[in-house]
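Hi support team,

I submitted a single chain yesterday and got back a structure, but I'm not sure I'm reading the token output correctly. Could someone confirm the output below corresponds to the sequence I sent? I've pasted both exactly as they appear in my results page.

Thanks,
R.
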Amino acid sequence: NEDECLTALELVPNLLTRGINPAIPLYSPNSTANRAGAALQIYRLNAIPDAVMEQMLIRYDEDKNLRLNKVESGLDEAAFVKLDKNGDGELSISELMAWRDLPPDLAVEIIVGAVQGESVIKLLPGADGKPSPFAKHVTITPDGKATLQLGSQQMELFSPNSSTNFVPINRGYDLFFDQIDVKKQGYLTEQDLAGTQFQYMRVIFDIVDRNGDGRMAKKEYVDYVELQQSFTGVALAISHFTQTPSLFALLDANGDGRLSVREMRTAWERLKTLEPGGQFISKSALKPQAWLRFTMSRQMNQGLVGTNYNPMVQPPTKGPLWFRKMDRNSDGDVSRAEFPGRTEDFDKLDLDHDGLIGLDEAEAAEKVFRAVKP
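Hi R., thanks for writing in. Yes, this is the structure output for that exact sequence:
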């Protein structure tokens, strides 16, 4: 469509008809998907079953001697020595049981806020007050996401950080009250609720009538309904799933379902983490990745990570007004094709001369404009 961005369907037109293996959501700690060999397994604190130790032994015991040496276990020196009670350099199944009692490699606090900016992810120190062993491998971004990168595999934790993610309270009850209050008195009496269609209002009448004056005032009714609806934001849920990532998803840095010019230019910076030090990426490097979402229950299925085949592009919200209006494809850059002015004016704004005016360049130009404006 010549919007200077590539979607998955533009790259592979038959993508949706040739058969895709979608990510499998694992919503319950007791789900059958918590099977041996799963890339991600979730259990409640202090409730890891013995079967998990057997799974670890089966999965990592390369020489099949029913024991794990230090290399097979993947544990650091201190942890391995602590578990190896008899000091024979191998962990039996009984010694491996004590793995559950070791301190966590990473502890995080996820806060889900009601409005934009309140949702945050924080790293917690270990029991000794020092940073957790995996803390150095974690990157936290302001959009409510933390990424744990271990070699070529990663785990992402999400906490929604935008008010647009939250379902607004339904204001239809105002109109409902007004339809019943045909006399426009601003209150209702039990006589006004004689019909069978008002059974619900009769049931809650005494509860809503807080001052006991025999009238259900509109404000009393509104306060009652809003109190009830506010409870829907109390219940929290954690959802988790694993997926072998597609190259498209890895290249799509902002997750908008399109590959922009800048994303293609910076692709190698993201891909090289799969096989550090190499000059290419092999298929074997695409290992399962894990995602955890801690959200309000009503949001549990919103925004699961994956390829967005039918992107709904949102208009840009950052940068000067002129920059946002020129960015017609909403990819975060203004290209030469989008710029309505002269080439020499574009070149002055394009400070790094990469053929794109980015957000930083636009904001830098805006400061100059404001400084010289009479």
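A quick pointer for reading it: The two ends are 42 Å apart (CA to CA). Let us know if anything else looks off.

Best,
Support desk
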